[in-house]
Design brief:
- The structure is a single chain.
- This protein is α+β, with helices and mostly antiparallel strands.
- The protein has four helices and six strands, in the order ααβααβββββ.
Amino acid sequence: MTTTTVTADQLAATWTELWNGSTAVATALLTDDFSIRFASPTRDITDALRGPAAFASFVTEYRAQRPDVGFVVDSDAAGGLDATGTGTFAVRWHSAHDDIPAHGGIDIFEAVGGRLRRVWSVGGAAPFTLD
């Protein structure tokens, strides 16, 4: 019998798919008590979000306002997960669209059992440079 262990990079890739509109992945990706914290003016709204359904609805509304914005993870995960898919890690990301200035940030994740439980997201008006 083989066991497939999820990696931090795989979770980050699926998280990015969710932000890019694949909200169907939310139930498998996020724990029932999932929460997110943003270091931004949207904090009051998002701090009240709990669970996959609420977050998928938030992403759907976000995407309706910004349908052409795409998110990209531009770093390998820093940190990692144990054999049970539990641990903490961070990734650097950026987003851009022709009509919207590029922005970027860092997301920090707490995973439990191969699913994301908590995310802290720090973004800014410009992406981090890669050099």
